[in-house]
Design brief:
3 domains; about 30% helix; binds zinc ion
């Protein structure tokens, strides 16, 4: 995943106190940095409102946008008009997440009913497989916990969130599927990529799990949870209950695999290290969770997660 150009390199606590959050919101000026305090989802904004009160939360948003978006409660037209943004008025978080899952499960009609740039719509209509062979982002209106979501068209290797972060909370992104993303022999045992078995297949882990960069991004953005929708599906052995991860299209009806990156934070001792809790889900059901997952960013494109 690409990152916005502006980053804050200093270590910061994962959950700033309301007082710190308010200060951060008031002091910073660049989008990449100003959003590092921001809560992730509708739920978190509501928690924040309960904790520090509506007016304080409103001040947080007002202070860096210049206007009260909490009152406006609309994703700005400028964002909706962006070539890479697709939306449907009234599309909320749950529908947006379901849409992301339809994309990764290669539903060719996934974009039907959405509004977006005509040329881009045409581009996908001509060859729907283009929808699945690139990344997508899911962004929630930053000013309204129960507000609308939009999806953002990304590239083969990432979503450029930069232009949208002032107005949108990055809830999720999807990973594409193409030849280079195929799991060898069509499936791999989950234990062999999750650190739970002695013999680990590191290349397969790189393919299937969120990237170390995904964890870094979540930490920079201060999103308490960020979902990575993968194109793979989850198989369950009928006797042992053991899980395996499979390429799409080989096992009809198998539930799709997604991950949640929880509470990602930069390691105070090493700025190239990030820590998080990672959850694996088959459709909406959690089947694996690990605390203290280390994203080691020191190895460039081979940077991976350690459990
Ligand atoms: Zn990613």
């Amino acid at each position: 995943m690409r990152h916005p150009a502006t980053k804050r390199s200093a270590a910061r606590p994962n959950r700033p106190s309301p007082e710190e959050a308010r200060k951060n919101a008031e002091n910073v000026s660049t989008p990449g940095a100003s959003l590092s305090y921001a809560p992730a989802t509708a739920r978190h904004i509501m928690q924040l409102q309960r904790t520090i009160g509506n007016r304080a939360v409103q001040r947080m948003f007002t202070s860096h946008t210049g206007t009260s978006r909490l009152i406006q409660r609309e994703i700005p037209e400028g964002i909706k008009k962006d070539d890479n943004v697709f939306y449907k008025d009234g599309m909320k978080e749950a529908e947006g997440r379901a849409l992301m899952q339809r994309i990764t499960t290669q539903d060719k009609s996934a974009l039907d009913g959405l509004s977006g740039d005509e040329l881009m719509m045409d581009y996908y209509k001509r060859a729907p497989s283009r929808i699945f062979s690139q990344e997508w982002g899911l962004g929630l209106d930053r000013t309204d916990a129960g507000g609308d979501v939009v999806i953002i068209s990304g590239g083969k290797t990432g979503v450029s969130w930069g232009p949208y972060l002032e107005h949108l909370i990055p809830l999720a992104h999807s990973h594409p599927y193409e030849k280079s993303r195929q799991i060898k022999d069509n499936f791999v045992l989950f234990d062999q990529i999750s650190g739970d078995d002695g013999e680990q297949k590191m290349m397969q882990r790189l393919l299937i799990f969120p990237s170390a960069g995904d964890v870094e991004f979540s930490a920079y953005q201060g999103v308490a949870d960020h979902t990575v929708f993968t194109p793979y599906s989850v198989l369950t052995h009928p006797q042992s209950g053991k899980k395996a991860i499979a390429n799409p299209g080989h096992f009809d009806g198998a539930p799709p695999l997604s991950f949640t990156i929880l509470n990602a934070v930069q390691d105070t001792d090493n700025p190239k290290h990030y820590l998080c809790t990672l959850i694996a889900r088959e459709r909406d059901t959690e089947f694996w969770r690990k605390d203290g997952v280390l994203a080691d960013l020191t190895k460039g494109p081979q940077s991976t997660l350690y459990f």
